[in-house]
Amino acid sequence: MSRPGHTVMPDLLSRIAQEYGTPAYVYELAAVSAAAAMLTADLPAPSGLMYSLKANPHPAVVGRLVTGGNGAEVSSPGELAAALDAGCPPEKIMYTGPGKDFQHLVGALTAGVRCFSVESLVDRDRLADACQLLGVHAEYLVRLNTPRGSARGALRMTGRPTAFGTDLANRQEIAALLRARGRVRPVGTHTFSATNVDEPAALLQEFRSALAAVRTVCGAAEFAPRLLALGGGFPAPMARPGALARHPDLAAGLKSELDTAFPGWRRGRPHILFESGRYLTATAGTLLTRILDVKASGGRTFVVLDAGVHVLGGMTGLGRLMAPSAQPFTVGGSGAGEETAVTLAGPLCTPLDVLNASARLVDPRPGQLLAVPNTGAYGPTASLLGFLSHTGPVEVVVEGARIHSARRLVISSEKVAPLV
């Protein structure tokens, strides 16, 4: 397959593979900046954009987005540390997640975080107790389980029974959540309908549906929100050629909805926030892998790579991410010739280690260097790094022709003492 219009040049990819080995992820910082600029341009102004670190917590990637003015959405002590280390001010961090440990909340508050998304009364009360312990105040958004807005999306977050948010039918709980308790007070709502919504019209409908629900909830409680976090769902190609979709009608459509539901939003009452992980990082990544073997079985050709589900897409079995269906291109060589249908398998001793059952390659042979495009989101940290104890992939950060840094992800163990 010929090389798609990717930002990292083949000679640099070859150099990285030679100097650092494979499997190797290559992250292009200029592509991160370009994605953030495109998405910001497609959102209604004024609004803010937070980076969801779960997509790619690499410090250089986080740092580039923070430097560009984006906030951070984090869901663990590790992600919080990455955001802070990247220079994100604590006041631009929102701590989310359906199961927040008390000590994790204490740690976040101690670090200066003051904005949280709460999923239930238990979650809210735990935050209040942490604030009481430390003698500090905090604000929170009430996460809502809003109705389904469309039939699209790789993964539904709301509009069905879920651990996320509070059901709209739970009116008493929502009313209680929209009242202050102790040192914590509500300032708005948090919604997130679905991930990777691949039709612009469907994405707009998801936001419209969420806004309608938020308007109803706030009206019933006579609650004037200061902040609305509307989530994301912005799509991006994964592990195959493709470009980021633009959303030319999104800003106009949302402005109309916001003018009706919350007329003061243009003056920042409420302030509007969006969040994205996949869109901001997917096209910035390239996974380098070498062919270890090419073999025939039952009339099919298997191409065995040194990258498998321990490197890419290992969470697909949990239904967390769509199957990668990786379609690499050859690095070096003319790429001319007839394509062959092959199964891309990894090196793990399980038949489930398949990256694509129907990829197409030109003259695959052992030793050949391949590059899987659009792998900057949900790559190594969303894979089975610990399975079979293979060495983790290298992560190389580049900008233009310059290599910024290289590191390797490792899993280590340490002795622990009893908690009490």
TrEMBL record:
Orn/DAP/Arg decarboxylase 2 N-terminal domain span: 37-282
Domain of life, per lineage: Bacteria
GO biological process, one term: lysine biosynthetic process via diaminopimelate
Cofactor: pyridoxal 5'-phosphate
Modified residues (N6-(pyridoxal phosphate)lysine): K54
Molecular functions (GO terms): diaminopimelate decarboxylase activity
Name assigned to this protein: Type III PLP-dependent enzyme
Organism listed in the record: Streptomyces malaysiensis subsp. samsunensis
